[in-house]
Specification:
Distance between the termini: 46 Å
Number of helices: 3
Largest sheet: 2 strands, parallel
Strand content: 5-15%
Strand order of the largest sheet: 1-2
Shape: flat
Structural class: alpha+beta
Helix content: 40-55%
Order of helices and strands: EHHEH
Length: 97
């Protein structure tokens, strides 16, 4: 690419292209809390995560090929787990898995 796209990198050091792939897939195709309310469609959830990662990879390549300075990355959704009953060893162990 010989010319940078017009809008970008005006002093920004960090770019986040895709956020929370797992949360998007879960809410759309597993829990059904996002439209269209689909539940337990694991094949679609996995395909969606794959497509989002491919899109992110392509964005990173374009960013680097354009010669922008700074860093580009992805934001992960990390979920903490807590024991149902902190006094029960099996619950504490399950939360650590």
């Amino acid at each position: 690419m010989s010319k940078k796209p017009p809008l970008q990198n005006q002093g920004f050091k960090w770019w986040e292209h895709v956020t929370e792939i797992w949360a998007v897939a879960t809410n759309i195709y597993i829990e059904g809390t996002f439209p269209n309310g689909v539940q337990y469609d694991m094949a679609s959830a996995i395909q969606l995560m794959h497509n989002m990662m491919v899109a992110h990879a392509k964005a990173v390549i374009a960013y680097k090929e354009a010669g922008y300075e700074g860093k580009i990355g992805i934001v992960h959704s990390l979920e903490s787990k807590y024991p149902y009953d902190e006094t029960k060893d099996e619950d504490v162990k399950a939360a650590k898995k």
